[in-house]
Automatic annotation (TrEMBL):
Residues of the CobQ/CobB/MinD/ParA nucleotide binding domain: 5-182
Protein name: CobQ/CobB/MinD/ParA nucleotide binding domain-containing protein
InterPro entries named in the record: CobQ/CobB/MinD/ParA_Nub-bd_dom, P-loop_NTPase
Domain of life: Archaea
Alphabetical list of Gene3D superfamilies matching this protein: P-loop containing nucleotide triphosphate hydrolases (3.40.50.300)
Upper lineage: Archaea, Thermoproteota, Thermoprotei, Sulfolobales, Sulfolobaceae
Organism: Metallosphaera sedula (strain ATCC 51363 / DSM 5348 / JCM 9185 / NBRC 15509 / TH2)
Length: 242
């Protein structure tokens, strides 16, 4: 399974929007799980999920944190403040069960990588036997973009503190969202520019929303998946030979 983390250091820049639109597009080809890791439960709410997996574990209730829409599985990780935070070991068996039939995992994260992000990442490691990160940073232009460029290099170190045997950290894309006019030139190769879309801004994120420019991100993500599938095949062959 290949894992993508949608990250950003500022609120309201479009992380959840990008996560959902990307997940839906990839689900046309792959079996995708989209994990809403944000306390605001933006995506979970769109799918009528009124519970979080962490809340369900903490309160012993098993219902309404997961739904399926064709090849897309949507999981709400947390809703408001759970009474108790489970350990990664506690989360891992149920997470393994949720992820077992997926090719691709996309996590939508809050602006600050908090304790729940750490627990999710550790549980992922326990559930799947390995950990890696294909990152998609989302920002708006201007100050937010400069903040992102300044801090994005700190994320790999943090992930390795959480899971020391993290296999790799790669940048899949830097998404500059809500661009009006020209965007400043930044020294990043995998850059995707998404224009400000008036209709989306006024109607808010819906399950059937569309954002012009998302195709470029889908393309970069699919390339990453193809590369990882080849690498996975090579690793399997090597371990068979050993
Ligand atoms: N390219 C765009 N043009 C116009 N509006 C957009 C665009 N992308 C996202 N939006 C709108 O911006 C708002 C914030 O988006 P979203 O909730 O995805 O941000 P977020 O980064 O996930 O926020 P949070 O930090 O609260 O989780 C939403 O109303 C969404 O519809
Ligand atoms: Mg969000």
């Amino acid at each position: 399974m290949i894992r993508f983390s949608v990250l950003g250091f500022k609120g309201g820049v479009g992380k959840s929007t990008i996560s959902l639109l990307l997940a839906k597009k990839l689900a046309e080809t792959y079996r995708v799980t989209l994990v809403d890791r944000d306390n605001t439960n933006t995506i979970g709410r769109l799918y009528g999920l009124n519970n979080g997996l962490i809340n369900a574990l903490s309160e012993g209730k098993e219902d309404n944190f997961l739904t399926r829409d064709g090849n897309l599985q949507v999981v709400s990780m947390v809703r408001f403040f759970p009474r108790r935070i489970p350990s990664p070991e506690e989360l891992a068996p149920i997470y393994r069960d949720i992820l077992k039939d997926s090719d691709v995992l996309i996590t939508d994260n809050p602006p600050n990588l908090d304790e729940l992000c750490e627990i999710e990442y550790k549980a992922y490691r326990l559930a799947t036997g390995e950990a890696h990160c294909n990152s998609i940073f989302v920002t708006t232009p201007g100050v937010a973009l400069r903040l992102t460029l300044k801090h994005m290099n700190e994320v790999p170190g943090l992930l390795r503190e959480w899971v020391p045997d993290t296999r790799y950290f790669r940048l899949t894309a830097l998404v500059i969202n809500m661009v009006k006019g020209e965007v400043e030139d930044v020294p990043v190769e995998r850059k995707v520019v998404i224009p400000f879309h008036r209709e989306m801004f006024y109607s808010g994120l819906q399950v059937d929303s569309y954002l012009p420019g998302i195709e470029n991100l889908v393309e970069l993500t699919k390339n990453t998946i193809q590369l990882e599938l080849v690498n996975e095949e090579e690793r399997t062959q090597l371990s068979r030979k050993a």
